[in-house]
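Lab channel / #folding
Pinned by the channel admin:
"Please post every new chain as: sequence first, then the structure tokens as a reply. Keep commentary short and put observations after the output so the thread stays searchable."

First post following the new format, from NK:
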Amino acid sequence: MNLHRVIRADRAVVGGRERSAAIGISDGRIVVVGERDAPLDATHEIVVPEGRVVLPGLVDTHVHVNEPGRTEWEGFATATQAAAAGGVTTIVDMPLNSVPPTTTVDALEQKRDTAWGQTFVDVGFWGGAVPGNLPDIAKLHDAGVFGFKCFLIDSGVEEFPPLDAQQFAAAMAETARLGALLIVHAEDADVIAGAPPAEGTAYGTFLRSRPPEAEQHAIARVIAAACETGGRAHVLHLSSAGALGQLQ
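Reply from TO:
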């Protein structure tokens, strides 16, 4: 077997348990995992120092790469190099903050074309569910997105608007039909609108502008839609302990 590299470690996590191992790599892929002193010939051999543990690469499913369109915030080259440096070997890019957002197959292809040749780890993509793109959801699903993200409140970028109650119910029904996952930024816009505005820099002022009821009401809506459609949903950014009882 022609190996480019073999990594020998007294401690490695393999198949969910810790053991000693020799890990053979060819063309950037792990092709064999054997015993610590297995007779594997390679161009380069790395012996992991005592006390260090070799772990499988991590997967970060919530990354805002922002490219194309807002590369001054982040780009595929910098995002994936940073991921690799931290032991993350796969990222899944969020559909908003890039321009265009990943709400159509054409936008997904633009993002893939932009990423090509400048990534240092594996990259996947979320699709977006926004007003007006219900017919695109199945097409994006067929094109390989990992699921769909939506907001129930202003996302902070104008090109990725939130879903109202009727639009959200329709999106959940469609993702349920496809067997896809819908991930939801769940805050109730009406509750937020009735709260004091976030003025100044005091943290307490910001907290009063985002009352726990905003999350609790929105999460109740997500749960009701999931129960009605049989769809799968994941609530993002949970910060209210009062919502935990609903999610158990």
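NK: The radius of gyration is 22 Å.
TO: also worth noting, The chain has a mean pLDDT of 94.
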